[in-house]
Design a protein that fits this description.
The chain is mainly α and about 200 residues long. The protein is about 50% helix and about 10% strand.
Length: about 200
């Protein structure tokens, strides 16, 4: 006769997991509704984006919630020209030598010189894709560059976003707070006291 005491923790986990599914589904439907209402993306397209981001999160260990917030921020709730015309939802530029695709748009962009600390406007070529999925998986590949190794040791959305900035992905000192506010506004995270990004 099999010992049922060994099965209890597993059964308990699955019961708790099954009880959480409707709440998680409702939470992501709220996000979907908010993004679709503000942007130029259908529910089906956004659900695919969520699925692809979850796939990247599971493969890399990066914060799923942070990836969602990053994509919403980079696209302005899927209303930016580069997301509409070139499916670029991660803000990836065509500046790196290994990028072989064509730039979608040459757009004015504020850049900060890390050596002098001065900011200036320049024209930046952004990458172009055939689909949101292609962009997401290119982004995951982009983050395998050695300069992003510290991301492998991050825990949670804020830590991931701050480390992303420390690795040089963005120069905007309030980037982390902007993305965290999106996560609060879309009900993906509870409101918290602001903490300034590094």
């Amino acid at each position: 006769m099999q010992n049922t005491n060994n099965l209890r923790p597993v059964l308990l986990f699955f019961l708790v997991f099954l009880q959480m599914l409707p709440a998680a589904r409702a939470q992501f439907e709220t996000v979907t509704d908010k993004v679709v209402a503000r942007g130029h993306i259908s529910k089906a397209e956004f659900r695919q984006v969520l699925y692809d981001l979850k796939t990247v999160s599971l493969r890399t260990g990066y914060s799923y919630i942070a990836l969602i917030g990053l994509v919403i921020h980079e696209t302005g709730y899927f209303s930016s020209k580069i997301s509409r015309e070139g499916y670029n939802i991660c803000g990836l530029t065509g500046l790196r030598a290994e990028w072989k695709g064509k730039p979608v748009i040459r757009q004015q962009h504020l850049v900060r010189d890390n050596e002098t600390g001065k900011s200036y406007m320049t024209t930046v070529p952004f990458r172009s894709y055939e689909s949101y999925s292609e962009c997401i998986f290119d982004f995951a590949d982009f983050l395998t560059h050695p300069r992003y190794i510290p991301l492998q040791n991050t825990h949670g959305a804020r830590d991931f976003l701050q480390t992303l900035g420390a690795c040089g992905y963005y120069q905007d000192r309030s980037y982390t707070n902007k993305v965290m506010q999106i996560l609060v506004d879309t009900n993906l995270m509870p409101a918290e006291a602001p903490v300034y990004s590094r």
